[in-house]
Write a structure and sequence with these properties.
3 strands; minor pseudopilin epsh fold; single chain; 3-stranded antiparallel beta sheet; Helix Hairpins; binds manganese (II) ion; mainly alpha
């Protein structure tokens, strides 16, 4: 049985990048539905005793993969944000690796947003680490997660319309750029170990 995560901040703490109203639907309705759906699908599926990452890595395309993937993705998404004060940029070895590969943090952010804007339809843009520590930005459609490529996911922006339509309507780029103001890079760095 999986349970709906609690958000580690107050509902209004991420505004205006993400409003309390968006959180109430995105976390309280969309994510809750994925949790409820997976719990109904798991009995008899052969995936009952696995962690989310293992289900996403092993399940074939279909409802179990989609619901498990969406839970894993949203759990990582919601917990990478924090109320102020938060760590507003990368430091240490993550900052050094980004600068090595992209030249600057701003150049990395620009490519990340461009890949989110350029993803056709619903999905996620991800920053992940490969086994040698190098970083990669990937676009994943639907419920996709970079664990299916053997990568370690570090940071993700949700580009499903339900993530931003109440606050930004069709302006996906504006939403993605606003998200930088609420990312807690301490969390992202802790994923890069
Ligand atoms: Mn979502």
């Amino acid at each position: 049985m999986f349970t709906l995560i609690n958000l580690p901040y107050a509902p209004e703490a991420l505004a205006p990048a993400i409003s309390a109203e968006t959180l109430s639907f995105h976390h309280g309705k969309h994510l809750k539905a994925y949790v409820d759906n997976l719990n109904k699908l798991l009995p008899g599926s052969g995936f009952e005793d696995l962690a989310l990452e293992a289900i996403v890595s092993k399940a074939p395309a279909g409802p179990v993969f989609n619901n498990a993937g969406q839970i894993l993705n949203h759990n990582m998404y919601f917990t990478q944000f924090a109320a102020s004060p938060r760590q507003n940029g990368p430091t240490g070895k993550l900052a050094a690796q980004i600068e090595k590969q992209w030249g600057s943090i701003d150049a990395f952010k620009a490519e990340f947003v461009a890949k989110g804007v350029g993803l056709f339809g619903s999905g996620w843009v991800w920053l992940s680490a490969q086994e040698d520590g190098s970083l990669v930005i990937t676009q994943e459609s639907g419920a996709g997660n970079p664990v299916t490529h053997g990568f370690k996911p570090l940071l993700t922006f949700d580009v499903w319309e339900h993530a931003y339509y109440l606050d930004f309507q069709n302006r996906r780029a504006d939403q993605l750029n606003a998200l930088w103001s609420i990312v807690d890079w301490k969390v992202v760095e802790e994923r890069y170990v």
